[in-house]
Amino acid sequence: MTHDAIRTLGQLRASGYKPRSVKEELRDNLISKLRNKEDVFPGIFGYEETVIPELQRAILAGHHINLLGLRGQAKTRIARLLINLLDEYVPVVEGSELNDDPLQPLSVFARNLIAEKGDDTPVAWWPRLDRYTEKLATPDVSVADLIGDADPIKAATLKLPYSDERVIHFGLIPRAHRGIFVINELPDLQARIQVSLFNILQEGDIQIRGFKVRLPLDIQFVFTANPEDYTNRGSIVTPLKDRIDAQIITHYPKSIEIGKRITKQEARIKEVQKGMVTTNEIISDLVEQVAIEARGSEFVDAKSGVSARLTISAYEQVIAGAERRALINGEKTTYVRVADFISAVPAITGKVELVYEGEQEGAGIVAEKLMGKAIRTLFLNYFPDPDKSKKLKNRPSPYKTIQEWFGNGNTLDILHDAHVNDYRAALDKVPGLRDIVKELHPKEDADTTYFLMEFLLHGLAEHSLISRNRLTAGAQFKDLLSSMFTMPSFGDDDDEDEEEQKPRRRR
What we know:
With 507 residues, the chain is of the alpha/beta class. It has three domains: 3-249, 3-Layer(aba) Sandwich (Rossmann fold), CATH 3.40.50.300; 252-381, Orthogonal Bundle (Helicase, Ruva Protein, domain 3); 382-507, no CATH class. The protein is 44% helix and 13% strand. The chain has 25 helices and 16 strands. The strands form six sheets. A five-stranded parallel β-sheet has the order 4-7-10-1-11, covered by helices on one side. The chain has a three-stranded antiparallel β-sheet with strand order 14-16-15. A hairpin with a 2-residue loop joins strand 8 and strand 9. The longest helix is centred in the middle third of the chain and has 22 residues, at 308-329.
């Protein structure tokens, strides 16, 4: 008999249904998925050998869970995926506030209804999506919100004392009975509110206005917390930490490849954008490298973390920048450029928490420095290291022709919104630029070749062989010495480092 056909308590008993706790349900379904080699947490990348095994062990042990980690580490996403380990439907006494199991009624309402109607008690089916409750912890959350409160109107109408369970207006936690209850940012919950969770986690009873109500609630609790919150805004009180069985520490992606998988999965790139903008792996790598640079930057507060949302937003802005250029120029398609990456500064400025030195520099300048360092780091994956002066086909320096052209007083402007013809014509002006790209990357198509030519210029600027100055509408490349008497190049290293490096590089 299918669940649709079961509408009464008598039919439910006849079907052979046996009550299970929510933790038993999660455990049994996890065991089934593991045996069938199913992906238990789809869309979660980089945790296959760390967080996910720990999470699975906690579920098998029947533990309440605290996911501890910096922002943007998929803590809430993981909690929401636990829904997939619940049964598709479970039976409840129809009309019960606490989603009572018909064979194990909890509330006075359900017990009275079953006593009155017996096997004719109506049964409804509760879908798993409705069995998930999530609450963001904020300082204004009250005990009444989470646990409940006595309702004076109910008490007056029913002529019952406050000690009677029937006058209680139940909060979120009792209404999550037989489901998963998640509290995000637990340390933000006031200490006195955290205390109200003690008995629910351990003994299963609650107290309303001093009256003890025995409610053996069946709930899988999941908490999320940022370790920095323990010192900045609040803390998890020690007795509550003691009652949370498993604390699982999350982390950021440990490689660019994992970061790219996350970004491409989460980035909201519209179909029309996919049809208009052709991208490449170098741009994706640059976007991920910015986050890596930020996590190690002296200007960024490491304790606050750098969310995966930075790379997602930056990637979306890169694509949007290329789309905007195509629209302005009346082009049906366009190829992504390094300029699109550099113009994605607004996606970064609000995503990093700066320390005092960073605040002094300014969010925009810090973002540009991070982007510059990303270009500098990845440049060496595609071109010879300028600092090591490696020879290429017997030339004294692979970059000598380019440097000499700029040294003769030539400048080059690459505008963000330049038409493809103007963009290519500008890059073609620099002698030796195409030769290096073609020699090292001979199999690339025309679009990628021009992208690498632009990337080469930016890389040489980051290694202080030429200068790059920021223009309102783009970037200007020129000789390094002449630029020292004009505006500073954005994204360069510290002045002190430059002074040490310039004489060595220009010999």
